[in-house]
Give the backbone structure.
Amino acid sequence: MFRGFTQKKINSYTLGEQLKKIRSEGRITLSEISRETKIPVRYLTMIEESDYDSLPPDVYVKGFLRNYAEYLGVDSKKLIELYQREKDIKNNLTKRGDAGSAPKSVRVPRFVITPKIITAAAISLVVLGGFLFLYKEIGRFAAVPRLAITEPLGDEAIEGNSIDVIGFTDQDAKLTINDQSVLVNDNGEFRESILLQEGLNAITISATNRFGKNVSKKINIKSDYQKPDLAYKPNLEENGNGQVDGDQTENKKGVEVAVRAESLPTWLSVESDGNLVYSGTMLPGAAQNFKGEKEIRITSGKANQTFIKVNGKPEKIFADNPGIVRDVLFTPSD
């Protein structure tokens, strides 16, 4: 069931207009609502179009509105009251009254608020609030977290070797991409840069709420690119005998580190000359060069799955530690 909406006020729109507005803000389709609430799409459409005459009896419609309100996170009582008021107005407009009949005077009974009534009302509100909270928590326990991917929209082919995965989930959900934890902001939104290997890349996005309920989505990205040259090549010149003249050897200025992920997805953070140039997940087989004038500082989430080449030297393991290793510094002299 869709979660994560904050309580919203019902504004001065019609019932259908308000439901459309809230649904549009959450980027939800009627099909998604129907699947989660078990309300047929045709009835959801009738409610949003105010086609009350085509709906089933009120007892069913009110049940639909309770489920719909719970799903969207709005006050079900106000929705039902608005539905009843709009339906009554519509019925009164279509009803032909007696043109010659004079309006009857209505005697309003006098109602006096006493301390007993105030106390009883307060107790009732507390009890009702407790039941509503318990009902909501039970509903959250039984429901899976929401998970929507806004980019990429589906399986696709790209020319580069990186892609951003963007979407939103519940605020309290734990999100992973290929088993790597991803930060979710206060609005439930996330954005993660993914370094790809050449060819087909399977990306699995999973969200788990605090009750252990899980939902996953999988996308396949085909990356058509030539792997970057992982070695840093010094600028060497040959002498007349076809040999390298040591006096003419000159290394390129700066420092270059080529990074490759081995067999597991690996989170990576790279700073070049004090500036963050990459933070994201490298899929197995992905590789990327990073350059700096004075220094490069690297943090790896799986050090023993990360391999590096520094200034063209032979490739080596980042560290033997299977966990995170932070802020390893590389300079032109390494």
